[in-house]
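Forum: Protein Structure Q&A
Topic: Joint prediction for protein chains with partners

I've read a bunch of threads here and the consensus seems to be that you should model interacting components together rather than docking separate models afterwards. I'd like to see that in practice. Below is the full input, 579 residues plus whatever partners are listed. Could one of the regulars post the assembled result?
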Amino acid sequence: MKLKKTLNVALASLLMSTLFSGFAQAQTNATNPISKKADVILQNGTVYTVNAKRDFAEAIAISDGKIVYVGTNQGVKPYQNSKTKVVDLGGKMVLPGFIDSHSHVTAAVETIFSVNLVGKESREDYLHTIKEFVQKNPNLKGLKGFGWENPVFPGKGPKKEDLDQIVKDIPVVLTSGDHHSVWVNTKALELAGITKDTKNPEGGVIERDDVTGEPTGTLRETAQDLVLGIIADYSEEEYKEGILAYENMAAEKGITSVHLALAVPGSNALKALKALEAEKKLHLKYRVSLATDPAKGPSQVKSLVEERAKLNGPDVQVNSVKVFMDGVIEGGTAALIEPYMDKHNAKPQWDPQVFNETAAALDKAGFAMHVHSVGDAATKETLDGFEYAVEKNGKRDSRHQMTHLQIVQPSDIQRMEKLNVVAVTNPYWFIKSPGYYENIELPYLGEERASSEYPMKSLINNGVKVASASDYPITWEFDPLFGIQVGVTREEFGNTDPKLVLGPEEKASVADLIASFTINGAYASFSDKITGSIEQGKEADLVVIDKNLFKIPSTEIGSAKVLLTMEAGEETFRDATLK
Ligand SMILES: [Zn+2]
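Posted by a regular:
Agreed with the consensus. Here's the joint model:
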Protein backbone atom coordinates (compact mmCIF):
# COMPACT_ATOMS: atom_id res chain seq x y z
CA MET A 1 0.00 0.00 0.00
CA LYS A 2 2.67 2.38 1.03
CA LEU A 3 4.78 1.40 -1.92
CA LYS A 4 1.97 2.17 -4.34
CA LYS A 5 1.45 5.61 -2.90
CA THR A 6 5.11 6.43 -3.21
CA LEU A 7 5.10 5.29 -6.81
CA ASN A 8 2.15 7.49 -7.68
CA VAL A 9 3.74 10.39 -6.02
CA ALA A 10 6.95 9.79 -7.89
CA LEU A 11 5.02 9.75 -11.17
CA ALA A 12 3.34 13.00 -10.29
CA SER A 13 6.64 14.59 -9.55
CA LEU A 14 8.00 13.48 -12.89
CA LEU A 15 5.19 15.33 -14.57
CA MET A 16 5.82 18.44 -12.54
CA SER A 17 9.44 18.74 -13.37
CA THR A 18 12.02 17.08 -15.52
CA LEU A 19 14.86 18.99 -13.95
CA PHE A 20 14.72 17.64 -10.46
CA SER A 21 14.22 13.95 -10.08
CA GLY A 22 15.01 13.70 -6.38
CA PHE A 23 11.39 14.07 -5.54
CA ALA A 24 10.06 10.89 -4.11
CA GLN A 25 10.89 12.06 -0.63
CA ALA A 26 9.71 15.62 -1.12
CA GLN A 27 6.36 14.67 -2.48
CA THR A 28 5.81 12.09 0.19
CA ASN A 29 6.04 14.96 2.60
CA ALA A 30 3.70 17.11 0.63
CA THR A 31 0.95 14.54 0.92
CA ASN A 32 1.39 14.31 4.68
CA PRO A 33 0.67 17.24 6.94
CA ILE A 34 3.95 18.90 7.81
CA SER A 35 4.21 18.30 11.50
CA LYS A 36 7.42 20.18 11.98
CA LYS A 37 8.27 23.62 10.64
CA ALA A 38 11.86 24.17 9.61
CA ASP A 39 14.40 25.95 11.78
CA VAL A 40 16.38 26.80 8.67
CA ILE A 41 15.59 26.84 4.98
CA LEU A 42 18.24 27.11 2.31
CA GLN A 43 16.66 28.05 -0.98
CA ASN A 44 17.44 29.18 -4.49
CA GLY A 45 20.60 27.09 -4.53
CA THR A 46 22.31 24.58 -6.79
CA VAL A 47 22.08 21.61 -4.45
CA TYR A 48 24.11 18.61 -5.57
CA THR A 49 22.64 15.94 -3.32
CA VAL A 50 25.10 13.07 -3.99
CA ASN A 51 22.16 10.71 -3.45
CA ALA A 52 22.11 7.40 -5.32
CA LYS A 53 20.81 9.11 -8.46
CA ARG A 54 23.12 12.09 -8.08
CA ASP A 55 20.14 14.45 -8.29
CA PHE A 56 20.20 18.21 -8.12
CA ALA A 57 17.72 20.23 -6.09
CA GLU A 58 17.00 23.89 -5.24
CA ALA A 59 16.04 23.96 -1.61
CA ILE A 60 16.59 22.22 1.74
CA ALA A 61 14.56 22.42 4.95
CA ILE A 62 16.24 21.62 8.26
CA SER A 63 14.58 20.87 11.56
CA ASP A 64 16.31 19.79 14.78
CA GLY A 65 19.58 19.35 12.91
CA LYS A 66 18.06 16.98 10.37
CA ILE A 67 17.12 17.39 6.75
CA VAL A 68 13.33 17.23 6.49
CA TYR A 69 12.95 18.25 2.87
CA VAL A 70 15.02 18.37 -0.30
CA GLY A 71 13.42 19.65 -3.49
CA THR A 72 12.21 22.82 -5.15
CA ASN A 73 11.84 26.42 -4.00
CA GLN A 74 8.10 25.93 -4.33
CA GLY A 75 8.03 22.65 -2.43
CA VAL A 76 9.98 23.99 0.56
CA LYS A 77 7.45 26.77 1.24
CA PRO A 78 5.12 24.79 3.55
CA TYR A 79 8.05 24.25 5.95
CA GLN A 80 8.45 27.94 6.63
CA ASN A 81 6.89 29.81 9.52
CA SER A 82 7.67 33.13 11.18
CA LYS A 83 10.56 31.66 13.16
CA THR A 84 12.27 29.95 10.24
CA LYS A 85 15.61 31.39 9.23
CA VAL A 86 15.70 31.58 5.45
CA VAL A 87 18.97 31.76 3.56
CA ASP A 88 18.73 32.83 -0.07
CA LEU A 89 21.68 31.18 -1.78
CA GLY A 90 21.43 33.14 -5.02
CA GLY A 91 22.25 30.05 -7.07
CA LYS A 92 25.32 29.07 -5.06
CA MET A 93 26.33 25.45 -4.78
CA VAL A 94 25.47 23.23 -1.83
CA LEU A 95 27.23 19.92 -1.23
CA PRO A 96 27.13 17.42 1.60
CA GLY A 97 29.69 18.40 4.27
CA PHE A 98 33.13 17.12 3.36
CA ILE A 99 34.56 14.03 4.98
CA ASP A 100 38.29 13.65 5.45
CA SER A 101 38.77 9.89 5.61
CA HIS A 102 42.24 9.89 7.18
CA SER A 103 43.58 12.71 9.30
CA HIS A 104 45.69 13.16 12.42
CA VAL A 105 43.52 15.81 13.99
CA THR A 106 45.24 15.83 17.36
CA ALA A 107 48.56 16.71 15.71
CA ALA A 108 47.23 20.25 15.49
CA VAL A 109 48.60 20.59 19.03
CA GLU A 110 52.03 20.88 17.41
CA THR A 111 51.05 24.05 15.60
CA ILE A 112 50.74 25.73 18.98
CA PHE A 113 53.31 24.08 21.21
CA SER A 114 56.30 23.03 19.11
CA VAL A 115 58.70 24.34 16.50
CA ASN A 116 57.17 24.39 13.03
CA LEU A 117 59.49 23.77 10.08
CA VAL A 118 56.78 23.48 7.42
CA GLY A 119 57.57 25.55 4.34
CA LYS A 120 61.24 26.09 5.26
CA GLU A 121 63.34 24.87 2.39
CA SER A 122 66.91 24.35 3.48
CA ARG A 123 69.00 22.97 6.32
CA GLU A 124 70.03 26.55 7.17
CA ASP A 125 66.39 27.67 7.33
CA TYR A 126 65.57 24.78 9.65
CA LEU A 127 68.44 25.57 11.99
CA HIS A 128 67.61 29.26 12.03
CA THR A 129 63.96 28.54 12.88
CA ILE A 130 64.92 26.14 15.66
CA LYS A 131 67.36 28.66 17.13
CA GLU A 132 64.69 31.36 17.20
CA PHE A 133 62.18 29.04 18.88
CA VAL A 134 64.68 28.06 21.56
CA GLN A 135 65.51 31.70 22.25
CA LYS A 136 61.82 32.53 22.65
CA ASN A 137 61.19 29.50 24.90
CA PRO A 138 64.18 29.38 27.25
CA ASN A 139 62.61 27.09 29.87
CA LEU A 140 62.01 24.04 27.70
CA LYS A 141 62.70 20.63 29.21
CA GLY A 142 62.73 19.07 25.76
CA LEU A 143 62.23 20.44 22.28
CA LYS A 144 59.72 18.98 19.87
CA GLY A 145 59.09 20.03 16.34
CA PHE A 146 57.86 18.88 12.97
CA GLY A 147 57.80 19.48 9.25
CA TRP A 148 61.36 18.94 7.97
CA GLU A 149 61.42 17.27 4.57
CA ASN A 150 63.48 14.35 3.33
CA PRO A 151 64.30 15.97 -0.06
CA VAL A 152 66.33 18.61 1.82
CA PHE A 153 68.62 15.76 2.89
CA PRO A 154 69.00 13.54 -0.16
CA GLY A 155 70.55 10.14 0.48
CA LYS A 156 70.96 10.14 4.25
CA GLY A 157 68.84 11.95 6.77
CA PRO A 158 69.82 15.03 8.81
CA LYS A 159 72.60 14.92 11.42
CA LYS A 160 72.62 15.19 15.20
CA GLU A 161 75.62 17.58 15.16
CA ASP A 162 73.55 20.33 13.55
CA LEU A 163 71.11 20.22 16.44
CA ASP A 164 73.85 19.85 19.07
CA GLN A 165 75.21 23.23 17.98
CA ILE A 166 71.93 24.83 19.05
CA VAL A 167 70.75 22.63 21.91
CA LYS A 168 73.03 20.37 23.89
CA ASP A 169 71.53 19.98 27.34
CA ILE A 170 67.93 19.05 26.51
CA PRO A 171 66.68 16.41 24.08
CA VAL A 172 65.48 17.49 20.64
CA VAL A 173 63.09 15.32 18.60
CA LEU A 174 61.88 16.70 15.28
CA THR A 175 59.38 14.75 13.20
CA SER A 176 59.57 14.79 9.41
CA GLY A 177 56.74 16.14 7.28
CA ASP A 178 55.68 12.58 6.40
CA HIS A 179 55.84 11.49 10.05
CA HIS A 180 57.96 8.48 9.18
CA SER A 181 61.31 9.76 10.47
CA VAL A 182 62.67 11.80 13.36
CA TRP A 183 65.76 13.98 13.57
CA VAL A 184 67.32 13.98 17.02
CA ASN A 185 70.28 15.49 18.85
CA THR A 186 72.94 13.65 20.87
CA LYS A 187 71.12 14.24 24.16
CA ALA A 188 68.03 12.49 22.81
CA LEU A 189 70.09 9.50 21.65
CA GLU A 190 71.73 9.34 25.09
CA LEU A 191 68.45 9.48 26.98
CA ALA A 192 67.00 6.80 24.72
CA GLY A 193 70.10 4.65 25.21
CA ILE A 194 70.76 4.39 21.48
CA THR A 195 74.39 3.55 20.71
CA LYS A 196 76.28 1.91 17.87
CA ASP A 197 75.45 -1.42 19.49
CA THR A 198 71.69 -0.87 19.39
CA LYS A 199 70.10 -3.11 16.78
CA ASN A 200 67.54 -1.76 14.33
CA PRO A 201 64.10 -2.57 15.71
CA GLU A 202 61.76 -4.69 13.56
CA GLY A 203 60.49 -2.44 10.76
CA GLY A 204 62.81 0.45 11.61
CA VAL A 205 66.19 1.96 10.78
CA ILE A 206 68.72 3.78 12.96
CA GLU A 207 70.86 5.65 10.47
CA ARG A 208 74.56 5.19 11.16
CA ASP A 209 77.98 6.43 10.19
CA ASP A 210 79.35 4.10 7.50
CA VAL A 211 82.72 3.85 9.22
CA THR A 212 82.08 4.01 12.96
CA GLY A 213 78.54 2.60 13.08
CA GLU A 214 77.55 5.46 15.43
CA PRO A 215 73.93 6.67 15.09
CA THR A 216 73.93 9.86 13.04
CA GLY A 217 70.71 11.49 14.15
CA THR A 218 67.91 10.16 11.89
CA LEU A 219 65.59 7.38 13.04
CA ARG A 220 63.11 5.92 10.60
CA GLU A 221 59.77 4.12 10.97
CA THR A 222 59.53 2.00 14.15
CA ALA A 223 62.96 3.26 15.27
CA GLN A 224 61.15 6.53 16.01
CA ASP A 225 59.48 4.77 18.91
CA LEU A 226 62.85 4.52 20.69
CA VAL A 227 62.75 8.25 21.44
CA LEU A 228 59.01 8.64 21.89
CA GLY A 229 59.03 8.58 25.65
CA ILE A 230 62.00 10.84 26.34
CA ILE A 231 60.13 14.11 26.03
CA ALA A 232 56.87 14.30 27.90
CA ASP A 233 53.80 14.15 25.66
CA TYR A 234 51.66 17.26 25.39
CA SER A 235 49.21 17.56 28.25
CA GLU A 236 45.50 16.86 27.92
CA GLU A 237 44.86 20.62 28.16
CA GLU A 238 47.33 21.32 25.35
CA TYR A 239 45.69 18.68 23.17
CA LYS A 240 42.29 20.20 23.82
CA GLU A 241 43.55 23.53 22.51
CA GLY A 242 44.98 21.73 19.50
CA ILE A 243 41.75 19.89 18.68
CA LEU A 244 39.69 23.08 18.91
CA ALA A 245 42.20 24.82 16.63
CA TYR A 246 41.80 21.94 14.17
CA GLU A 247 38.01 22.22 14.33
CA ASN A 248 38.16 25.88 13.33
CA MET A 249 40.40 25.11 10.39
CA ALA A 250 38.20 22.18 9.33
CA ALA A 251 34.98 24.21 9.49
CA GLU A 252 36.51 26.90 7.26
CA LYS A 253 37.23 24.18 4.74
CA GLY A 254 33.71 22.74 4.75
CA ILE A 255 34.59 19.58 6.68
CA THR A 256 31.92 18.04 8.89
CA SER A 257 33.31 14.52 9.55
CA VAL A 258 36.80 13.25 10.05
CA HIS A 259 38.45 9.89 10.47
CA LEU A 260 41.10 10.13 13.18
CA ALA A 261 43.41 7.60 11.62
CA LEU A 262 45.49 6.62 14.60
CA ALA A 263 44.44 6.81 18.23
CA VAL A 264 46.31 5.27 21.13
CA PRO A 265 44.08 4.15 24.01
CA GLY A 266 44.96 5.97 27.22
CA SER A 267 46.90 8.70 25.40
CA ASN A 268 46.47 12.34 26.35
CA ALA A 269 45.33 13.03 22.79
CA LEU A 270 42.42 10.61 23.02
CA LYS A 271 41.57 11.70 26.58
CA ALA A 272 41.39 15.30 25.35
CA LEU A 273 39.02 14.34 22.53
CA LYS A 274 36.73 12.44 24.90
CA ALA A 275 36.84 15.30 27.42
CA LEU A 276 35.75 17.78 24.75
CA GLU A 277 32.96 15.41 23.77
CA ALA A 278 31.76 15.24 27.39
CA GLU A 279 31.87 19.05 27.55
CA LYS A 280 29.78 19.16 24.34
CA LYS A 281 32.44 21.23 22.63
CA LEU A 282 32.93 19.09 19.53
CA HIS A 283 31.45 20.20 16.22
CA LEU A 284 32.64 17.42 13.95
CA LYS A 285 31.77 13.77 13.65
CA TYR A 286 34.83 11.79 14.69
CA ARG A 287 35.42 8.22 13.54
CA VAL A 288 38.47 6.72 15.15
CA SER A 289 40.95 3.95 14.35
CA LEU A 290 42.70 2.40 17.33
CA ALA A 291 46.41 1.59 17.03
CA THR A 292 47.56 -2.00 16.57
CA ASP A 293 50.95 -3.57 17.21
CA PRO A 294 52.50 -6.09 14.77
CA ALA A 295 54.32 -7.73 17.69
CA LYS A 296 51.12 -8.55 19.58
CA GLY A 297 49.17 -10.39 16.90
CA PRO A 298 45.64 -11.65 17.59
CA SER A 299 46.10 -11.43 21.38
CA GLN A 300 45.51 -7.65 21.23
CA VAL A 301 41.99 -7.95 19.85
CA LYS A 302 40.36 -8.48 23.25
CA SER A 303 41.66 -5.21 24.66
CA LEU A 304 40.74 -3.38 21.45
CA VAL A 305 37.16 -4.60 21.85
CA GLU A 306 37.12 -3.30 25.43
CA GLU A 307 38.54 0.07 24.39
CA ARG A 308 35.96 0.38 21.65
CA ALA A 309 33.14 -0.15 24.12
CA LYS A 310 34.62 2.44 26.48
CA LEU A 311 35.26 5.05 23.82
CA ASN A 312 32.06 5.04 21.79
CA GLY A 313 30.01 8.17 22.34
CA PRO A 314 27.74 10.58 20.48
CA ASP A 315 30.49 12.37 18.53
CA VAL A 316 33.43 10.00 18.81
CA GLN A 317 32.96 6.48 17.50
CA VAL A 318 35.37 3.62 16.99
CA ASN A 319 34.71 1.37 14.00
CA SER A 320 38.19 0.50 12.93
CA VAL A 321 41.79 -0.16 13.80
CA LYS A 322 44.91 1.21 12.16
CA VAL A 323 47.42 -1.18 10.70
CA PHE A 324 50.80 -0.10 9.33
CA MET A 325 51.74 -2.60 6.66
CA ASP A 326 54.79 -0.66 5.46
CA GLY A 327 56.50 2.72 5.48
CA VAL A 328 57.01 5.31 2.75
CA ILE A 329 58.90 5.46 -0.55
CA GLU A 330 60.77 8.62 0.55
CA GLY A 331 62.30 6.77 3.47
CA GLY A 332 62.96 3.64 1.40
CA THR A 333 60.70 1.78 3.83
CA ALA A 334 57.70 1.01 1.61
CA ALA A 335 57.53 -2.70 0.69
CA LEU A 336 57.82 -3.26 -3.07
CA ILE A 337 57.49 -6.42 -5.14
CA GLU A 338 60.41 -5.41 -7.38
CA PRO A 339 63.25 -3.87 -5.33
CA TYR A 340 64.02 -0.15 -5.42
CA MET A 341 66.33 0.98 -8.24
CA ASP A 342 69.28 0.89 -5.83
CA LYS A 343 68.41 -2.80 -5.29
CA HIS A 344 67.43 -2.47 -1.64
CA ASN A 345 63.93 -3.33 -0.49
CA ALA A 346 61.85 -3.21 2.66
CA LYS A 347 59.68 -5.94 4.08
CA PRO A 348 56.07 -5.46 5.14
CA GLN A 349 55.89 -4.67 8.85
CA TRP A 350 53.71 -7.67 9.70
CA ASP A 351 54.71 -11.30 9.47
CA PRO A 352 52.18 -12.71 6.93
CA GLN A 353 50.98 -15.50 9.19
CA VAL A 354 50.54 -13.19 12.15
CA PHE A 355 48.72 -10.69 9.97
CA ASN A 356 46.32 -13.31 8.62
CA GLU A 357 45.35 -14.50 12.08
CA THR A 358 45.07 -10.95 13.42
CA ALA A 359 43.01 -9.85 10.43
CA ALA A 360 40.62 -12.75 10.92
CA ALA A 361 40.27 -12.02 14.64
CA LEU A 362 39.72 -8.30 14.10
CA ASP A 363 37.20 -8.95 11.34
CA LYS A 364 35.33 -11.37 13.54
CA ALA A 365 35.25 -8.80 16.33
CA GLY A 366 33.55 -6.38 13.94
CA PHE A 367 36.49 -4.09 13.33
CA ALA A 368 37.19 -2.64 9.92
CA MET A 369 40.91 -2.52 9.30
CA HIS A 370 42.32 0.77 8.03
CA VAL A 371 45.63 -0.24 6.52
CA HIS A 372 48.51 2.02 5.62
CA SER A 373 49.77 0.38 2.44
CA VAL A 374 52.14 2.30 0.16
CA GLY A 375 54.06 -0.34 -1.77
CA ASP A 376 52.61 -3.13 -3.92
CA ALA A 377 54.11 -5.86 -1.71
CA ALA A 378 52.35 -4.37 1.31
CA THR A 379 49.09 -4.26 -0.62
CA LYS A 380 49.45 -7.91 -1.62
CA GLU A 381 50.02 -9.05 1.94
CA THR A 382 47.12 -6.94 3.17
CA LEU A 383 44.71 -8.39 0.62
CA ASP A 384 45.92 -11.91 1.45
CA GLY A 385 44.96 -11.18 5.05
CA PHE A 386 41.52 -9.87 4.08
CA GLU A 387 40.98 -12.96 1.95
CA TYR A 388 41.97 -15.15 4.84
CA ALA A 389 39.47 -13.34 7.06
CA VAL A 390 36.69 -14.05 4.54
CA GLU A 391 37.69 -17.72 4.41
CA LYS A 392 37.51 -17.94 8.17
CA ASN A 393 34.54 -15.71 8.97
CA GLY A 394 32.52 -15.77 5.78
CA LYS A 395 31.73 -12.57 3.92
CA ARG A 396 30.74 -9.75 6.26
CA ASP A 397 29.96 -6.08 5.72
CA SER A 398 33.55 -5.42 6.78
CA ARG A 399 34.42 -2.24 4.84
CA HIS A 400 38.14 -2.73 5.34
CA GLN A 401 40.11 0.21 4.02
CA MET A 402 43.50 0.60 2.43
CA THR A 403 45.13 3.97 2.31
CA HIS A 404 47.87 5.77 0.35
CA LEU A 405 48.12 3.01 -2.32
CA GLN A 406 51.07 4.56 -4.12
CA ILE A 407 52.16 1.53 -6.15
CA VAL A 408 49.44 -1.01 -6.88
CA GLN A 409 49.43 -4.06 -9.16
CA PRO A 410 46.40 -4.07 -11.53
CA SER A 411 45.50 -7.60 -10.41
CA ASP A 412 45.25 -6.37 -6.84
CA ILE A 413 42.80 -3.66 -7.86
CA GLN A 414 40.48 -6.46 -8.94
CA ARG A 415 40.99 -8.24 -5.63
CA MET A 416 40.11 -5.02 -3.82
CA GLU A 417 36.82 -4.88 -5.67
CA LYS A 418 36.06 -8.52 -4.92
CA LEU A 419 36.79 -8.03 -1.23
CA ASN A 420 34.76 -4.80 -1.08
CA VAL A 421 37.79 -2.87 0.17
CA VAL A 422 37.46 0.91 0.29
CA ALA A 423 40.45 2.68 -1.24
CA VAL A 424 41.28 5.78 0.78
CA THR A 425 43.34 7.82 -1.66
CA ASN A 426 45.17 11.11 -1.13
CA PRO A 427 44.42 13.25 -4.19
CA TYR A 428 46.46 16.11 -2.70
CA TRP A 429 49.54 14.06 -3.57
CA PHE A 430 48.71 13.34 -7.22
CA ILE A 431 51.38 15.72 -8.51
CA LYS A 432 54.92 15.61 -9.81
CA SER A 433 56.26 17.81 -7.08
CA PRO A 434 59.83 18.76 -8.05
CA GLY A 435 61.30 17.92 -4.64
CA TYR A 436 59.61 14.57 -4.24
CA TYR A 437 59.09 13.33 -7.75
CA GLU A 438 62.42 14.29 -9.35
CA ASN A 439 64.69 13.75 -6.38
CA ILE A 440 63.13 10.74 -4.68
CA GLU A 441 60.37 8.92 -6.50
CA LEU A 442 62.06 8.77 -9.92
CA PRO A 443 65.47 7.62 -8.65
CA TYR A 444 63.91 5.20 -6.14
CA LEU A 445 61.18 3.73 -8.33
CA GLY A 446 62.33 4.26 -11.92
CA GLU A 447 60.27 5.96 -14.62
CA GLU A 448 57.69 3.23 -15.15
CA ARG A 449 56.64 2.77 -11.55
CA ALA A 450 56.93 6.44 -10.63
CA SER A 451 54.72 7.58 -13.51
CA SER A 452 52.03 5.05 -12.64
CA GLU A 453 51.86 5.92 -8.94
CA TYR A 454 48.68 6.88 -7.12
CA PRO A 455 45.98 5.32 -9.29
CA MET A 456 42.44 6.62 -8.82
CA LYS A 457 40.44 6.26 -12.02
CA SER A 458 41.46 2.63 -12.52
CA LEU A 459 40.20 1.88 -9.01
CA ILE A 460 36.88 3.54 -9.83
CA ASN A 461 36.65 1.85 -13.25
CA ASN A 462 37.13 -1.51 -11.58
CA GLY A 463 34.27 -0.86 -9.20
CA VAL A 464 36.32 -0.09 -6.09
CA LYS A 465 34.72 2.47 -3.78
CA VAL A 466 37.14 5.36 -3.40
CA ALA A 467 37.22 7.80 -0.49
CA SER A 468 39.65 10.69 -0.14
CA ALA A 469 41.82 11.98 2.64
CA SER A 470 44.45 14.57 3.45
CA ASP A 471 46.45 12.63 6.02
CA TYR A 472 46.77 15.98 7.84
CA PRO A 473 49.33 17.15 8.94
CA ILE A 474 51.16 15.36 6.13
CA THR A 475 48.98 17.51 3.88
CA TRP A 476 49.31 20.77 5.69
CA GLU A 477 46.60 22.58 3.69
CA PHE A 478 43.88 19.97 3.99
CA ASP A 479 41.27 21.86 1.96
CA PRO A 480 39.00 19.34 0.14
CA LEU A 481 38.37 21.80 -2.72
CA PHE A 482 42.11 21.78 -3.32
CA GLY A 483 42.05 17.97 -3.12
CA ILE A 484 39.23 17.82 -5.66
CA GLN A 485 41.14 20.05 -8.08
CA VAL A 486 44.33 17.97 -7.88
CA GLY A 487 42.37 14.72 -8.16
CA VAL A 488 40.84 15.99 -11.41
CA THR A 489 43.93 17.66 -12.91
CA ARG A 490 46.77 15.58 -11.40
CA GLU A 491 49.10 18.56 -11.54
CA GLU A 492 50.28 21.33 -9.26
CA PHE A 493 48.43 24.62 -9.06
CA GLY A 494 49.48 26.88 -11.94
CA ASN A 495 51.29 24.15 -13.85
CA THR A 496 51.17 24.56 -17.64
CA ASP A 497 53.58 21.81 -18.71
CA PRO A 498 51.68 18.68 -19.82
CA LYS A 499 54.76 16.60 -18.96
CA LEU A 500 54.24 17.49 -15.32
CA VAL A 501 50.81 15.85 -15.16
CA LEU A 502 51.05 12.68 -13.08
CA GLY A 503 49.46 9.78 -14.97
CA PRO A 504 46.85 11.68 -17.06
CA GLU A 505 44.93 8.42 -17.63
CA GLU A 506 44.20 8.34 -13.88
CA LYS A 507 42.35 11.68 -13.88
CA ALA A 508 38.99 11.23 -12.17
CA SER A 509 35.91 13.39 -12.71
CA VAL A 510 34.62 16.19 -10.51
CA ALA A 511 31.68 13.95 -9.59
CA ASP A 512 34.08 11.11 -8.65
CA LEU A 513 36.07 13.42 -6.41
CA ILE A 514 32.99 14.91 -4.75
CA ALA A 515 31.69 11.41 -4.00
CA SER A 516 35.08 10.48 -2.55
CA PHE A 517 34.97 13.43 -0.14
CA THR A 518 31.32 12.82 0.83
CA ILE A 519 29.22 9.68 0.49
CA ASN A 520 32.10 7.26 0.04
CA GLY A 521 33.83 8.63 3.13
CA ALA A 522 30.57 8.16 5.02
CA TYR A 523 30.40 4.59 3.77
CA ALA A 524 33.98 3.87 4.83
CA SER A 525 33.20 5.01 8.36
CA PHE A 526 29.81 3.26 8.59
CA SER A 527 28.11 6.68 8.72
CA ASP A 528 26.31 6.60 5.38
CA LYS A 529 22.93 6.28 7.09
CA ILE A 530 23.34 9.67 8.76
CA THR A 531 25.63 11.76 6.55
CA GLY A 532 27.50 11.94 3.23
CA SER A 533 24.57 13.01 1.05
CA ILE A 534 21.76 15.53 1.17
CA GLU A 535 18.68 13.41 1.74
CA GLN A 536 15.64 13.56 3.91
CA GLY A 537 16.25 12.01 7.32
CA LYS A 538 20.01 12.54 7.31
CA GLU A 539 21.76 15.06 9.51
CA ALA A 540 22.15 18.50 8.00
CA ASP A 541 25.87 18.28 7.27
CA LEU A 542 26.32 20.77 4.45
CA VAL A 543 28.72 23.12 2.79
CA VAL A 544 27.84 26.13 0.63
CA ILE A 545 30.40 27.07 -2.03
CA ASP A 546 30.54 30.30 -4.01
CA LYS A 547 30.88 28.54 -7.38
CA ASN A 548 29.33 25.57 -9.14
CA LEU A 549 32.24 23.12 -9.33
CA PHE A 550 30.76 21.51 -12.45
CA LYS A 551 30.69 24.81 -14.33
CA ILE A 552 34.16 26.21 -13.71
CA PRO A 553 37.49 25.10 -15.24
CA SER A 554 39.00 22.32 -13.14
CA THR A 555 42.06 24.49 -12.51
CA GLU A 556 39.85 26.92 -10.57
CA ILE A 557 38.15 24.47 -8.20
CA GLY A 558 40.78 24.91 -5.51
CA SER A 559 40.18 28.66 -5.51
CA ALA A 560 36.43 28.32 -4.95
CA LYS A 561 35.38 29.57 -1.52
CA VAL A 562 33.50 27.93 1.28
CA LEU A 563 30.79 30.34 2.42
CA LEU A 564 28.93 28.27 5.01
CA THR A 565 29.50 25.02 6.83
CA MET A 566 26.86 23.25 8.85
CA GLU A 567 27.20 20.17 11.01
CA ALA A 568 23.95 18.62 12.22
CA GLY A 569 22.20 21.88 11.33
CA GLU A 570 24.55 23.99 13.37
CA GLU A 571 26.62 26.64 11.61
CA THR A 572 30.28 25.96 12.25
CA PHE A 573 31.57 28.50 9.74
CA ARG A 574 30.07 31.44 7.91
CA ASP A 575 31.92 33.70 5.56
CA ALA A 576 31.25 37.40 6.14
CA THR A 577 30.12 37.83 2.53
CA LEU A 578 27.17 35.44 2.92
CA LYS A 579 24.11 37.32 4.08
ZN1 LIG B 1 48.30 8.95 8.41
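The radius of gyration is 25 Å.
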